Amino acid sequence: MTTTTAVAPAEQLDALSRRCLAEAHGFVTARAKEHFSGRSEGALAETAVPEFVAGGKCLRPLFAYVGWRCGQPDSGAAIRAAAALELLHCFAMAQDDVMDGSELRRGRTALHLRFARWHEEQGWAGSARRFGESAAILFGDLFLVWSEQLLRESGLTAEQLARGWPHYDAMRAELAVGQLGDLVNDARALPSWDTLLDVLRRKSGNYTVRRPLEFGAALAGCGPELLAGLGEFGGLVGEAFQLRDDLLGVFGDPAVTGKPAGQDLRDRKASSVVVLAAAMADRRRQTEFAELVELETVDDEAVARWRELIVATGARDRLGELIRERADKALAAIDPAVVPRHAADLLTALAARCTERDR
Amino acid sequence: MTTTTAVAPAEQLDALSRRCLAEAHGFVTARAKEHFSGRSEGALAETAVPEFVAGGKCLRPLFAYVGWRCGQPDSGAAIRAAAALELLHCFAMAQDDVMDGSELRRGRTALHLRFARWHEEQGWAGSARRFGESAAILFGDLFLVWSEQLLRESGLTAEQLARGWPHYDAMRAELAVGQLGDLVNDARALPSWDTLLDVLRRKSGNYTVRRPLEFGAALAGCGPELLAGLGEFGGLVGEAFQLRDDLLGVFGDPAVTGKPAGQDLRDRKASSVVVLAAAMADRRRQTEFAELVELETVDDEAVARWRELIVATGARDRLGELIRERADKALAAIDPAVVPRHAADLLTALAARCTERDR
């Protein structure tokens, strides 16, 4: 667990990620045991809940921890506070999968389907699907509660926590408000590219990168100049992260992403890929676009047609450029005069992990 | 807002309830404005969210506040901390209504149906029902977040809050765990009377009365002897409250309860009324019982048959006795040597409000 400069930043991130995940995993394992031991649904809950936490990439904890390192030395309390953001993410994933009807999460059966299958196995009355969805919502609620509890009990001082709460509260609220905005956008006719960029900035830009970074730096007591620089960096990397996520949602390899090929197309998500392709399509391609939008179900063949069309409009390449532009601008926002060297190295490695990833 | 002994306890409770509700309502109105102004779903969110809070009975805040008054004088900070429990209850109601498919809440259209109708009015693509359910889940999440935020920002000292968190955390977790337990019980064959009493004690007994009371008393720094007495009182009143709730779910007047007649029968809830009637039924009535359980849909006629059967088994009268027994035992648990007189008067009035109510 060394953090000396002899260890490459990417390896340091891996070690930090393992420490955060161990804290999050240990906390929910203890809570699941406390609340579910001896209950009929207990055996599944005690297995499924910790498994759901395991295998996370811990991106948000990493940004929070690196934010912390901009002002303070390594600390187990800061690791636990950062890990609280992984549980917040578990809350979002468990509930989003119900709302989006997703079947897979990280290559495993989604939580709501695991509980639906268990219901079927018991041979009980009522809808197994309904039961599974309700159970996943309730475990999402528990993750939301446990996140705040882990942060409050992290071992940080009351003064440090007081600086972090406004950022944490904003993040939690924006997460729910942003998910509602996504549902509105998906239900509505295709949004404009500008509207979409705005949602992207407010939701993912804030949630995944900027807020965690500012949260960690605030906990560490960093000053306004440093916070402003981290905010700019975070906003840009966050947007690039989401654009990459959208590309993976259309072009990602199922063996690597753990999700079906073209998942966002199957879900009819109004993602940046689709919206930009619509904006860049010439008249002939607009006609094909309209045809694809009208399809009753999006099967493998339709995914292939969608992908070809998107590539042909030039949207895929353009998104790659937009991601690189943002990543470059983000790195330029790190002022060596205010950001300590070791933190800057970790931020650079984290930006690469977010924007060049294939899962 | 006087609390001198000249004002009858029931009137004091009404005044306290209005103060708690004003704090809860003001807080969510400000949060809804902060997060939803200018959004397409904003107008509805800014109306529906505060409306959902208005009209609450504030039972849980009242127990918390009276717990506080067992050790401390009146305080605006304590009123705000107590009001946090009303927002916690809003979280539970918004999500339970989705899981139970309830159409009415306090005589109004349930939150998920309001958002579903709004979706229909927009003429958007996708399932309006699904959208409404997701929106209600997300507003439930926001209530859960806002509850904790209101408590943390109540103005109580860090030392006071530190004494309250364990009770608050237990309450939040038990709420989600208990709801899951309800779903399991409803899905399963009818539970035994003993199993049901255990669930009832752990879920409603704790959530509505005992935990709020202990939470308030802990915030006020009350000692172990006082807490133990309040715990005993709270457990008994909580059970009586739930038994009364179950009776209202079967026999309540829709004009007063704001719910359809026989709602619990229509929802096929394995409530104490049905379980006790099953246990008390003779052979002939067991046959009719089995017939009613097998019905595809529970219509007005079936509700009438169910009610007659339950009355005939003697279960309705027996539940009335069980409620009175618990209420009497609860009042005997208030030791005048440890509970201050004004708090004891309020507890007595609150117990009556919980166990003799018709809504």
UniProtKB/TrEMBL annotation, chains A, B:
Keywords: Magnesium, Metal-binding, Transferase. It comes from the Bacteria. One of its GO terms (molecular function) is metal ion binding. Pfam families: polyprenyl_synt. Its cofactor is Mg(2+). The keyword rRNA processing does not apply. Signal peptide: none annotated. One of its GO terms (biological process) is isoprenoid biosynthetic process. Belongs to the FPP/GGPP synthase family. This is Geranylgeranyl diphosphate synthase, type I. It comes from Amycolatopsis tolypomycina. The lineage of its organism: Bacteria, Bacillati, Actinomycetota, Actinomycetes, Pseudonocardiales.
